[in-house]
C-alpha cells in the first residue's frame, strides 16, 4: 500500500468564495458570540469551507461542475487519465452524498466509460449488484462512494487505486474505506491519494488526522492483540 498526499490549488472562483467566507465568519465572531452558538457557527462554516474546496458549485448549490473551477477536479482528471491508460480501476470516497453524482458524471467523461455510485440512499439489495458489477470481468473503471456507506463491509479488490476526494476527521474511518481495496484477494499494489487543497483549512484537518494517528500508534500496539 502506497499512501500519498495529493495537493490541489484553488481556482480564482474558489479563492473569491473562500476569502469572502473568511471575512463573513470574522465579522460574525466579532459580534462576541459565546458558547454553543459560537461553536455551531464555526462548525457550520468549516463545512462550507470544505464544500468550496471540493467545487464552488457544491457550496453554491449549482449543477454545472466545470473542471476549470476546481483544483481538485483538475487533479482528479490527471490521476484518472493515468489509471485509464493502465486499464485499472479506482474507488473515489467523499463525505458528501451530494458530490457522488457530479463526480460520477465528471469521471464518465474522463474515462469514456460508465461508472458506479454507492451512498447511504442506495438500497441494500442493490449494493450487492453494484459490487458484483464492479468486481466483474466487464471493465468498470470507477466507483464513487460516500465514506459512511461504502467504508465498511465491501470487498472491492478489483480496484488498486483509492482516492479520498475530501477528508474525514477520523483516520480509522479513512483507513477502513481504503481497506475495501487493500485486503486479502488484492493482487496488485494499492495506491492511495489523499486530496488536500493548499492554503486552506484542509491542511489543518490533515494535520489533525496525522496527530490522531500518531497518538493511536503510541498507545495501541501494532499487533492486533485482544485487549
Protein described:
Helix 1 runs antiparallel to helix 2 and helix 4 packs across helix 5. With 227 residues, this protein is α/β, with parallel strands linked by helices. Helices cover 51% and strands 14% of the residues. The protein is globular. The chain has nine helices and six strands.
Distance between the termini: 27 Å
Overall strand count: 6
Mean pLDDT: 93
For the report, how would you describe the main beta sheet? 6 strands, parallel
Radius of gyration of CA atoms, rounded to a whole number: 18 Å
Strand content range: 5-15%
Structural class: alpha/beta
What does the overall shape look like?
globular
Share in helix: 40-55%
- Figure out the total of helices: 9
Unreliable spans are: none
Order of helices and strands: EHHHHEHEHEHEHEH
Strand order of the largest sheet: 1-6-5-2-4-3
Summarize the structure.
The protein is of the alpha/beta class and 227 residues long. Helices cover 51% and strands 14% of the residues.
Give the SSE layout:
Elements: E1 2-8, H1 12-29, H2 35-54, H3 56-60, H4 71-85, E2 90-94, H5 97-111, E3 116-118, H6 124-135, E4 142-146, H7 147-150, E5 161-164, H8 171-178, E6 191-197, H9 201-219
Parallel strand pairs: 1-6, 2-4, 2-5, 3-4, 5-6
Helix pairs in contact: 1-2, 4-5
Identify the notable features of this structure and list them briefly.
alpha/beta, 227 residues, globular, single chain, 6-stranded parallel sheet
Amino acid at each position: 500500500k502506497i499512501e500519498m498526499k495529493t495537493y490541489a490549488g484553488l481556482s480564482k472562483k474558489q479563492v473569491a468564495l473562500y476569502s469572502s467566507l473568511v471575512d463573513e465568519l470574522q465579522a460574525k465572531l466579532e459580534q462576541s458570540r459565546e458558547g454553543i452558538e459560537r461553536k455551531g457557527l464555526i462548525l457550520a462554516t468549516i463545512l462550507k469551507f470544505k464544500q468550496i474546496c471540493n467545487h464552488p458549485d457544491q457550496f453554491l448549490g449549482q449543477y454545472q461542475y466545470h473542471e476549470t473551477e476546481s483544483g481538485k477536479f483538475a487533479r482528479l482528471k490527471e490521476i484518472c487519465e493515468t489509471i485509464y491508460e493502465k486499464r485499472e480501476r479506482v474507488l473515489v470516497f467523499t463525505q458528501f452524498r451530494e458530490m457522488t453524482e457530479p463526480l460520477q458524471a465528471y469521471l464518465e467523461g474522463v474515462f469514456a466509460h460508465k461508472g458506479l455510485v454507492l451512498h447511504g440512499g442506495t438500497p441494500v439489495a442493490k449494493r450487492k449488484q453494484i459490487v458484483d458489477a464492479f468486481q466483474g470481468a466487464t471493465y468498470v473503471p470507477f466507483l464513487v462512494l460516500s465514506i459512511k456507506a461504502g467504508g465498511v463491509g465491501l470487498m472491492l479488490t478489483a480496484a488498486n487505486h483509492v482516492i479520498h476526494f475530501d477528508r474525514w476527521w477520523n483516520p480509522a474511518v479513512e483507513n477502513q474505506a481504503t481497506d475495501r481495496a487493500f485486503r486479502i484477494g488484492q493482487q496488485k499494489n494499492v495506491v492511495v491519494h489523499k486530496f488536500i487543497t493548499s492554503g486552506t483549512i484542509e491542511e489543518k484537518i490533515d494535520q489533525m488526522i496525522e496527530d490522531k494517528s500518531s497518538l493511536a500508534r503510541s498507545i495501541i500496539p501494532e499487533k492486533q492483540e485482544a485487549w
